[in-house]
User: Fold these one by one.
Assistant:
Number 1:
Amino acid sequence: MAAMGRIVAFCCNYVTSVPAEALQEAGLVPEGMEIRRLPCTGKLEIDQIIGAFADGAEAVFVAGCKIDKCHNASGSHRAAKRVKYAKKILEELSISPDLLEMIFVERGEAGPVVEMAQVMQERLEARDASKETAT
Amino acid sequence: MISGSNLERVLKSGQFAVTGELGPPKSGDPEVVREKARILKGHVDAVNITDCQTAIVRMSSLTAGLIALSEGVEPVMQMTCRDRNRIGMQADILGASALGIKNLLCLTGDHQKFGNHPQAKGVFDMDSIQLLQMVKGMRDGRRFQCGEEIKSHEPRLFLGCAANPFADPFEFRAKRLAKKVEAGADFVQTQIIYNVEKFAKFMEMVRDLGIHEKCYILAGVTPPKSLGMARYMKNFVPGLDVTDDVIKRLKDANDQREEGINIVVDIINQVKEIPGVAGVHVMAIEWEQAVPEIVKRAGLAPRPEYEGVEPVLVTSGAIESAVAQAREEAAQELKRQIDEAKAEAEASRGLIAKEKERTASEISQLRKQVEEAKSMVSQKEAEIQRLTKELEKAKQEIMSAPQGQAPAAGGASQTAVVVEEPLTSREERVLSSLNLGLQALRKVLGLSDEAFEALRRFLEAEFILHLGGVPAGAKVAAPAPAVEEKAAAIEPASEPEEAPAPPSEEKGRNKEVVNLVAKGNVLLHKQDFSGALEVFEQALSIDPDDEQAKEGAEKARAGMAEPAAEAAPAPAEGLLPPCPEELTQEEWARKWVIRYVAKGNVALQKGDPSAAREFFEKAFQLDPNDAKAKAGLDRCEGAPAAAPAPEAAPAEEPAPAPEKAEPESGPEAAAPKPEEPKAEAPEKKEEPKPKAKPAPKPAAAPAPSPGELSIGSLAKDETKLQERAAGISEELYVEKATGAIREVVLGDGEKAITIGGSTALPFYWFEGEMGNPPRIAFDVLDTEPEDVPDSLAKYYSDVMGDPVKWAQKCVSEYGAEAICLSMVSTDPNGMNRAASEAAQTAKAVADAIDVPLILWGCGNADKDTETLREVTSLITDKKVCIAPLTDANYRNLGATAMAFQLPVVASTPIDVNLAKQLNILLENLGLTLDHILMDPSIGAVGYGLEYTYSVMERIRLAALTQQDDKLMVPFICNIGREVWKAKETKLPSDAMLGDQERRGVLIEAITASSLLMAGGELLIMRHPKAVELTKALIESLT
Amino acid sequence: MIIAERKPMPEILGMLQGARKVLILGCRGCVAICSAGGDKEVGVISAALRLGFKKAGQEVEIHEETFVRQCDPEYLEPLKDKGKEYDAVLSTACGVGVNFIADRCPGVKVFPALDTSFYGANLSSGEWKEMCAGCGACVLHLTGGLCPVARCAKSLSNGPCGGSVGGRCEIDPDVQCVWHMIYEKLQEQDRVAQMEEIMPVRDWRSAGHGGPRRRVREDLLP
């Protein structure tokens, strides 16, 4: 599996119509962030989330439809439960569950994705800083 | 009756029963149970003992029940199914029954989840109903649960169960109780009742099923201690129905406890009226004190008298009284034994008295015999006088008679030599020939009667004197001088001018032979066979026919024919104990010479020259060539005049033989008799006291103020081991040594000291002699030492850096008996002072002091060789001791020591074999062992002392008990050096380690005293107080 | 059905310490149904292991495979050789599967990924409940089909105990009192009298207290 970006965003096809490249070009998201487009977040499996971390991602977030407005009725709801379980696995592995989030986004909106990307970037920076002070 | 329990009796008698509850402690403290039991005693008919209620580990109900029983309270033992399977439960049921428990309440038990071990595996092999069935089966069917028969002593238990009228399904509750009764319950105690109404309904169902007729129903009640407790029970205890009314009453109450009691009394009064209720079960959890009050206020007091309570365990009171009784009995037994022993002692005292009497009578008899002998002598004297008178008379008669008739036969017979005592035939023959000779002589010389008489008297006296003429019947030596006196007294009676004429060949013969024979006999008696033979031969050359001379010569030859080995020690008989098999006579004698010399030296040391002389004389007798014995004798002569004169006199006074044996024989008894060990020990201890301590010090304990250490002398317990051993035979603990440690002399002149000489382990006075007492040398460093703690430095601050002054101070101020000059400055790894320079210093020290000097090198073999050689070439007039000789330099230094006849210290790493090896090497070199001191390499306390001790002890045991000749050498222990380099001597004073000086002194003194016990004979030490302490110890032990 | 649950990842990582090549072996039997050890769970465990090893700085080769069942010998046949190639075979089967691999595949180092919990039913998606204790002496005919051995906290034979209130067990209000349920069931069937009979003390030998149990059906033996 190809190495992943520092931040991986699993995005519902209906959420981000703007390609990642465009966001990056606009300087809206941190460099090296990767957006993976999914037909529906309901298709996202736990092993994919954990696998993203295993393949090099340091933070992952999932952007799905608004919970009651899912294109596929309950896709983002399922995704949210799987994210919760995946967080548990991260905890078991002593990885901060804060580095995995689920957001619910209005169709076609890029704002929350950009925002969450920045939040994740900040969390990573904070983590690295605390790591440094610790060592 | 099922079990005959008190509860059963009360219930069967139809009285309203009251039971209580007792929760065992979460500890092994029986007092908790006892206390609770005492509170409940007399107020309830029986007490439930809970079985780890709410699954919290507590003292088992069986045990606590027994403790309650021992307090006179009848237990109802609770048993749950949670913690034991059927095997464990049946076992405990049998045990409970065996120990007097008569009521058993069968429960399933609270789930372990509620307790303090929620992780535990709940057993629940069966439930409470099956448990009831099982116990009933054991009791009535006499069968274990498996069906096997209980052959005897089936458990007789009054069986109870619990019932919760408030649990669900409510309508099934009475039926479930019916199941329990069917399974075996004889009585039931209900869950805590607050909702009396609901309980009444429950009872209605119970009555409908007729259960109340098959079992006794006790209503459970609990006084709510507080509103909080009531609320907790209402909300959190499943199956407990606390009514709002109860909560309200408590809430409104001023005194919740009081109200709690009121509530419970009200409930009791209500349930009492419900048909089928046979009693109440009052559960005052951790509030047992409330029970008496509740019972009283509910009108249930007093409780019927207890019956059927037989405690198997005894109460603490009973235990105490039993103990007291046992103690009393023991005391009486002891008293009886003491009385018996006393009587025995009395009896033996009587025996002793009788024995004394007998001895006294024997002595008086002996005295009488002496008297008799004396009177015999005086009789004889009288006889002699009578004879003289007769002679006088005869002479006068002769004078008056014609000359020619003088030598008449009658006269001859009258004037013959007369000895009153019975004579041997030989003596008679000699006497008769003597008489014949005299007669002939008289005839030839024409002697006058007086002259003849005088001659005859003289011969008679001579005969008696020299021919063993002591009358055979007299046992006492005393008459001898009397006879001698007599003879002397008689002699002047003879006329000197009329003395016997010059002996012609014929005349002189008899007399000379007689004299020679007498002399020969005396020599024979002395066992000087060759001398005797010579004399007898001389006599025979004069008179070859002399029978006595012949006989004497024969005896002398026979005596000489005895093996020479035996002949040699013969004169020393009495001096030498029987020789052990493994030694030759000479070796044995040699050892004893050493021993006697050692003893002599000790005696001399103690200021008892007379005793010393005796020892030296003995040594001298054993070996007249022994230089030490000779020297000792010389020293006895030169000993301070104060002591010997009065003491020597009684020792030399010849005490009459029979009187010597008599203990009460006046002043002689006080005279020292060193050969008697009993008398010796105490005297030894008494005498040196005034001498050894020039300035008597207070015998007080060391002063408590730190820094000021004063050392008192130690108290002496002079109880002899024999006494302390309480009659145990000496041979059981006395192990006499067969070896003796050699003596080594250090220094010269008056201040010379002798080390060693012991024939027993250190201070084992009961086994032998210690020889010379242990000595202490002061350690003086040849350069100003670094890193010396103040506690030590302050004693030498004025002299440190100047070894001459330092040494002088040790001698003059601290009374050093010897000095060890540690030439640390020569160490090549340190100052590396030139050997010649160091030797100059050593010489200066040697010149400045008169006590023995030990020169101790830096420990570098090559450098020490150089330094010590230099030193010995400089110091020529003094016998210094050089140290240390190691396996690396013993050849060079050993040769040097031999050349100057210096004592040396043989130093080896702590090991028995290495020590022995070096001694052998030195001996092979030609150095005699009496010039060697062994340095076993010692460690201070905390730094290997125990190892040192054990090796020294082994060396000493090998020397004393295994005849390891090469190890019969005294020890020197360089203690100061080791002690004062230990960091503990340098750490400052603090609360934990205490005062620095006291600490250092004690470390040194304890090291020293330990090594004394291991056999250390010469100790090198630094701190004057430590030396003082150690000396006090030595003094008290010698 | 046998109900199992994944062990926490640190425990799994701990038992695989030092392994360089690991096979995660799923089972499509009970554990797949109860979502503990089927293909999907193998994938999740695999990803989590990769992440865990990576975090620990360990290079571990992880392979995944899932058998139809691990409790029948024929399915284990391929593992006998293949299993030896691995430093560890992490079985996501129940304890039976792990035991069976250990018994049948010498040289294969097998480790359990799951804790085997109980015999239960799937109440709804994601929820399972114990229904049977496998005690080997069924009394369900006496208790209205409800098992007091598996479902009563104290395995009472003559319940309900005094802790039964409102149909709930005293140990946990979320737990139903099975004896209350039995009472109601029997009442419904007009069989309450059955509960008035004392149920005799049980013989626990059939429950495994007499040693490991075995069943043989002669006619089916090869």
Number 2:
Amino acid sequence: MRSFSSIARFTAREILSDPLSLLLTLAAAAVAFTGSVMHCHQFGEASRMARDASFSAILTGGILFSVFCTVKTVRCEFESSTLEMVLSHPVGRIRFFMAKTTGSVMALAVFLFTLSCLSLTIVRGAWIGGETALEKGDVASMWGPSAALAFAAFTLPLAFAAALNRAKGTRFVLAAMRTMPVLAAASVVYRFDCAFVARHAPGLVLLFFPPIVFAAAAAAFSMRFGSGMAAFASIVLFAAAVPALGNYCLSNALSGGGTIPWRYVALAAAAAAPAVACFLAAGAWAADSVETEGEKGI
Amino acid sequence: MSVLAYPVEVSGAAKTFRDFWLRPSVKAVDGVSFTVKSGEVFGLLGPNGSGKSTTIKMILGLLKPTAGDIRVFGAPPRSIEARKRLGYLPELSYLHPFLTPRETLEYYAGLCGLPRREAARRTDELLEMTGLSAVASRAVGTFSKGMARRVSLASALIGKPDLLILDEPTSGLDPVSTAEVKRLVKMLSANGMAILMTSHLLSDAADVMTGFAILDKGRILAAGAVKDLKGTLGEYFLSKVGEGAGFKIAPFLA
């Protein structure tokens, strides 16, 4: 168990130290913000547009985060030959693969949690502001202090890390990725509305399942193929899954004060579980048969 | 797993690599047999492409032999029991560049299943032994080759192995570092650790080795004890392997 947790924690840290993870998180946050404020898309449905923009950022950003970060962390072990060092220690190959996948999901959880808190803040702000503030173009009034906190969640960690002069490459990124979820959560806690959060929570949890499935898929592909091929295979899978993702009609369910029953979340989990299990099994088989021929090193 | 089993027993091991279409392409190792005993420093010698690294990787369980049998302390190389008792120092330092030496050693200590307190104590010991205490908090990616090699060595020793596999341990090191590595190898073998090493630097290898096997084109040409050699190891090596065809000077350089 110790070796499993070591590899999982290390993998999560490796991903959260990668500038790619910070870039994807900030990009998803930017989509969530700008999708809400672009007037040409409002059509008089301010809160719905804010919710749709942020939910789509979570779903698409989460899938991209899981695919690219997982492929990178797994293939990096092959390409830098650190896999040889790891497998020369008493670690089973299947355990290694499972731990790497778990670590990827742990890092993904940071992304999903951060964007979820941001989403709640944006939607809450749009709901509070109402149509009048939107028509006036009064963004600050529409969103209120909650939005300012959410924005600060993404800029303060960067300034903070730089100010402490610990901003050297990956440690800067890790500091930012560790601080953002804390501040994003604070923006939700500020003017906390339990009923509002409870109404949107099932929808947010539903958005977590596709990225987790794709993380397992990307990990399995990465054990067998090179970086490019693994990423390509994952994107092909994404393209094939788009029609199924169309079942995520969350906005219709949440409009007019509606909510999504938790039993639907359980059904979605039950649907995602076999897919995750298949990919994990495929990845475990690939891990057991992989042969290393590393040549690179420091 | 037998308590009295030799650290390494290789019997008729062979490895044939296949291409993408699964056709045999390269026979890297062909019927290699040797044994490494506890306290012995055994050298696997040979020219480039002779199959030394492939043999090492089969012993580590990184490659599956196509034929033959390999046992590490009586267990298959891929078993956890075997890998609990071995440490590996590769020729190049395969390290995670963003980790510090302390974090690297604690990570590998976790892979060995050491409790946190024991891992921290062992990490401090090895940092002290390898002279890395002063740079324990610096990212490994900023290290020189020699310093990175020391981190790798510490990583190989973190689990207190009974068998240490060294792939070109003195390659690229300055004379002082080379002397330190040789002193360490002698000290570890005197404490009962079995050491299997490969080396191109035969004069350095002869200083520490007790037994050897010479490989060429995947086969063992000769094996024996260093103390039984009449001349130097280098002379014996060339007598077995030959001096090569030599470079042919292109006409435009003549």
